[in-house]
Amino acid sequence: MTFPKDSIYASPIGEVGAFKFDETVTGVFPDMIQRSVPGYSAIISAIGLLAGRFAREHSVCYDLGSSLGAATLSMRHQIETENCRIVAVDNSEAMVTRFQEILQKDQAPVAVEVLCADIREVAIENASVVVLNFTLQFIPLEDRIGLLQKIYQGLLPGGILILSEKLKFDDDRQQELQTEMHHAFKKAQGYSDLEISQKRTALENVLIPETFARHQNRLRQVGFSSAEVWFQYFNFASIIALK
Known about the structure:
Subunit structure: Homodimer.
GO molecular function: carboxyl- or carbamoyltransferase activity; methyltransferase activity; S-adenosyl-L-methionine binding
Protein name: Carboxy-S-adenosyl-L-methionine synthase
CATH topology of the domain at 40-168 and 206-242: Rossmann fold
InterPro entries: CmoA (IPR005271), Methyltransf_25 (IPR041698), SAM-dependent_MTases_sf (IPR029063)
Number of strands: 7
Function: Catalyzes the conversion of S-adenosyl-L-methionine (SAM) to carboxy-S-adenosyl-L-methionine (Cx-SAM).
Order of helices and strands: HHEHEHEEHEHHHEE
């Protein structure tokens, strides 16, 4: 399947506004995310495999910040557990509307409920799997621990949180190198220096990355017994947190 090419930042913009998941971004999102996040397809595929491993009967799997539902669909096609359903949540009306259209064409026995809501306000209950796939980085820093506490409390014993994030590094040399290599990755995907620069400006103060140590410490603080990186490609990583 082919998707419209992301060219949102291809031409000079006088004043670059803050990045938003609006209709313009929604229209090119599959291309944008694939060309911007190293290893994205591998992460999506593994989320499905992990959901197949951890989903339990009569439980709920949550995709928080679901965008166009890539993680939801991956879980849906890997879960074989009976009487298990998925709740996908996103606060972008454009994303939710488009995902609902995609979902109508998808055939799988696992029920999916799509909500347009702020994930900070959605109750997490009876969960065996929770996914935050490049979502927490857009939540205000002061709200992150509260969201993770709610997720932990809503997870069943033995449940899993899959947390994917862009990372920052305390070591200045690592930070410079990882940023440089991410830009090299994007250029290899066809983005120009102008596109990379303008999107970086748009994401400033919107996407706030943290170190792995900060993520790990906070996950342990809210109660997770284990939190480790299972995948990393330059400054993008995915973490498995176990209850």
